[in-house]
Design a protein that fits this description.
The protein has 37 helices and six strands. A hairpin with a 2-residue loop joins strand 1 and strand 2. It has a six-stranded mixed beta sheet, with helices on one face. By secondary structure, it is mainly α. Helix 8 packs parallel to helix 10 and helix 23 runs antiparallel to helix 24. The protein has a domain of 126 residues. The longest helix is centred in the C-terminal third of the chain and has 16 residues. The radius of gyration is 32 Å and the shape is elongated. It binds one DNA strand of 10 nucleotides through helix 2, helix 4, helix 6, helix 8 and helix 10. This is DYW domain-containing protein.
DNA sequence: TTAGGGTTAG
């Protein structure tokens, strides 16, 4: 209806140059952002050879709002005289088009304007917002000084944009000063302040602002709800989140796209992926962000296959992925070690131009290093001209997890040379590398000196690395003492690290003590029972093994069945131990028998000690034969061209026998075999493993 | 005639 009315008006203008009519039309077009009509009016005005400042300003505004900055700039450049609105309209256009630096260059042109239009609150609102986007703190401060002197600082728009500028460019304290400096803060100031605290990880300060807001502001707007949902997500408070969700439904704010995505995100971060999925299904409208949010919610909650399915559904729905969607999808592939999916995503990223985005490259490095293709991760890393802390962390941790300790430490050294500040995460990779290389003193130097000098408090992950480092060096009593004397929130992983070392180093006395202690804290931990059982089997203490098995039966503790999977030509093949389901199982068994004969000839002897005592001696070898990783690897060998690397993932820790056998498989088949078990990567090549037989 | 705060990632 509106369009028809506009056309009638346009027709009535034919042959006329009524300024009043064109202004009325321009006003409506500016509101409705109708580019086609805007162009028609523009043409009429050119033909009539008359276009005053206000009409030109409207044209700039229309073109700018429709994202046609070249046309907006053309109108602006051809104006014989301009006023402050001409400048502010063009600046707002550049700002919304993602070109904050252009905003500042227009400000420069403005200062040379002979008519010297005085910059007003509209100009500074946009200039300060641009400073925020560009992290141009000095410029932002200068603008702050100007608006204070000129009295413009009392406009609520200016105050709010100043809060945002300080929050992004300097710190939350400066933002807070602006917030408290002037009376009459509005809902936007409160929203900005809450978000500012949340961005800086200060949840309780955000809660305090929210409490003050309850008494000062009677009505929250939809952005307040987005901020409060962010607060629930950050504090993982799903109960409060649910209450807020109910309030949103009462006020019918859930139809807002931002609110809708924030609800999905809140449930995802609170660990309730089912509620996230339901909230997503209820959304009346979905954009790339809502899709990316639900994918992230699934990935964060281990629903990895579902996340990749959503990625496909999203595109079927006509929504194109953006850089963050690719980052989530690649992270999902990393979780699944789905190298071929990751490779195809890499190709899409190249085609779509998102390879220029650092977060995508960081995710590619992460995906490749977690999928056992550390060489591909390295290629991307080396090619990257601009790296951030996360890039360095991904590469250092990638090298460490793949057993390349020396490379990890070299990269850490390069990071320091490039003057990129290491973080909490960096030192996890660095300490793991020290563990691989047996650098005990260096490990202690990093934890006790360098980290503390940099103001990073070592956490349980770092202390666990030190335990691993001592264990690997055979210093188990020191590791035990370290755990008992160092104040840390030791968790199951830390204690299992020590127990596992006791098993490897055959320190049965200490192992028994540690296992008893773990079972006091975690009475039903399957991993501890299995490690104990393996430990006693190694000591030929079959009576103890039987006792543990009986105890497990009594407590109904079941060992998770071993499962391995391999992707061949985009298809996932899953193998369970003693599995006969695969269509090629006969070929797999035949090839496995041949291979075992071949490796026996060069020294392989089945390690039957790791098989249960209650299995007859002559059947023990058979049990070992059918471990899931052996089946998956042999399937890989017969299904891929010679020389192609084999990538297998296993849900449990690899057993000693498989480790020895696979080392020799890599030698006799001349293949690189990468196995990601529940703890680490094993890269088998030429009869050796990257873990140096310690895992 | 022109302006502000908000959802997704590693």
């Amino acid at each position: 209806m509106l369009l028809i009315a506009l056309f009638i008006l346009l027709e009535s203008m034919r042959g006329l140059a009524s300024s009043q009519t064109s202004l009325s039309l321009l006003k409506i077009i500016s509101k409705t952002k109708n580019l086609r009509l805007g162009k028609s009016i523009h043409a009429k005005l050119i033909i009539s050879n008359f276009c005053d400042i206000i009409e030109s300003n409207y044209l700039i505004d229309i073109y700018a709002k429709c994202g046609h900055l070249t046309s907006a700039r053309q109108v602006f450049d051809l104006m014989p005289n301009r006023n402050v609105v001409s400048y502010s309209s063009l600046m707002a256009g550049y700002f919304h088009d993602g070109c904050p630096s252009e905003v500042l260059s227009v400000l420069k042109i403005m200062s040379f304007d002979e008519l010297w239009p005085r910059p007003n609150e509209f100009i500074f609102a946009t200039v300060l917002a641009s400073c925020s986007n560009m992290q141009a703190f000095k410029m932002g401060q200068q603008c702050h000084a100007y608006v204070l002197k000129s009295g413009l600082a009392f406009h609520s728009y200016i105050r709010n944009v100043l809060i945002h500028m300080y929050s992004t460019c300097s710190g939350v304290e400066d933002a807070l000063k602006v917030f408290h400096s002037m009376p009459g803060v509005d809902v936007i100031s409160f929203n900005s302040m809450i978000n500012s605290f949340l961005e800086h990880g200060r949840i309780w300060d955000a809660v305090e602002v929210l409490n003050n807001m309850v008494s000062d502001i009677s009505q929250w707007d939809h952005i307040t709800y987005v901020a409060v949902l962010g607060l629930c997500a950050d504090s993982e408070d799903s109960l409060l989140g649910r209450q807020v969700h109910c309030q949103i439904l009462n006020r019918r704010f859930e139809t807002n796209l931002f609110v809708g995505s924030a609800i999905v995100d809140m449930y995802g971060k609170c660990g309730d992926s089912s509620a996230a999925r339901s909230a997503f299904n209820e959304l009346s409208c979905r954009n790339v962000i809502s899709w990316t949010t639900i994918m992230a919610a699934c990935t964060q909650n281990a629903r990895l296959e579902e996340s990749l399915k959503l990625f496909v559904e999203m595109q079927v729905d006509g929504v194109q992925p953006n850089d963050l969607t690719y980052a989530v999808a690649l992270n999902t592939c990393a979780g699944l070690a789905a190298l071929s999916n990751g490779n195809s995503l890499n190709a899409h990223v190249e085609k779509s131009g998102y390879k220029a985005h650092l977060i995508v490259c960081n995710s590619l490095i992460n995906m490749y290093s977690k999928s056992g293709s550390i060489e591909d991760a390295q290629v991307i890393f080396v090619d990257l001209a601009c790296k951030d802390t996360i890039t360095w962390n991904c590469m250092i941790n990638g090298y460490s997890h793949n057993g390349l300790g020396r490379k990890a430490l070299e990269t850490f050294h390069d990071m320091l040379v490039e003057e990129v500040g290491p973080t909490y995460v960096t030192f996890i990779g660095v300490l793991l590398a020290c563990g691989h290389l047996g650098l005990v003193d260096e490990g202690f130097y990093y934890v006790n000196h360098l980290m503390r000098n940099l103001g990073i408090t070592p956490g349980v992950e770092h202390h666990t690395c030190i335990v691993g480092l001592l264990c690997r060096a055979g210093l188990l009593d020191e590791a035990d003492r370290y755990m008992r004397t160092t104040h840390s929130e030791w968790d199951l992983i830390s204690w299992r690290t020590l127990l596992s070392a006791c098993q490897t180093h055959r320190k049965f006395g200490l192992g028994k003590k540690v296992a008893d202690y773990i079972l006091q804290l975690y009475p039903n931990d399957v991993g501890t029972y299995i490690l104990m059982s393996n430990m006693y089997a190694k000591a030929n203490r079959w009576d103890a093994v039987v006792k543990i098995r009986r105890l497990m039966r009594e407590k109904s503790i079941k060992k998770e069945p071993g499962v391995s999977w391999i992707q061949v030509r985009n298809e996932l093949h899953v193998f369970a131990s003693e599995d006969n389901q695969h269509p090629l199982i006969d070929n797999i068994h035949k090839k496995l028998a041949e291979l075992l004969d071949e490796v026996k000839a060069i020294g392989y002897a089945p390690n039957t000690a790791s098989v249960l005592h209650d299995v007859e001696e002559e059947h023990k070898e058979g049990y070992l034969k059918f471990h899931s990783e052996k089946l998956a690897i042999v399937f890989g060998l017969i299904s891929t061209p010679s020389g192609a690397p084999i990538h297998v993932i296993k849900n449990l820790r690899m057993c000693d026998d498989c480790h020895i056998a696979i080392k020799l498989f890599s030698k006799v088949t001349n293949r690189k075999i990468v196995v990601r078990d529940v703890n680490r990567f094993h890269c088998f090549q030429d009869g050796l493993c990257s873990c140096d037989d310690y895992w």
